[in-house]
Task: structure prediction
Amino acid sequence: FLTSAAAMAAAEEEEEGVLGAVKALLDPNEKTKSGKVLPRGYLKSAREVVKTLRESLKEDAGDPARFRRTADSAKESIRAYLSGWKGQKSVVDEESYIMLEKAIRSLAGFYSKAGPSAVLPEEVKSQILTHLIAAEKYL
Result:
């Protein structure tokens, strides 16, 4: 009985995955928490930036290897986000886009002045986290 129940659950998951993929092709948009309809690719990319950047900011610089991994992950998600969405008319006026841009600019501004290996001060971390929280409300 357990085997057949597990098989049925796996079949349902597979079916949902296929249906989800077909739906994504037919309707490339998604409704946000605030009720707006935005491109699904944008929302996925923006949510990834929020997640990885938040993880990076919470990481302790005392463990350099772990800190580097989370920072590299955040850097990659920011690059992907910017390469796909920077200046895109479909999202440029969205609150989430504006807040993410502020967070990224704060981070870039600090490192351009202090150098790539500088430790991010709590004040700058707090400012970036505030922007991330605001962006997340609109995603």
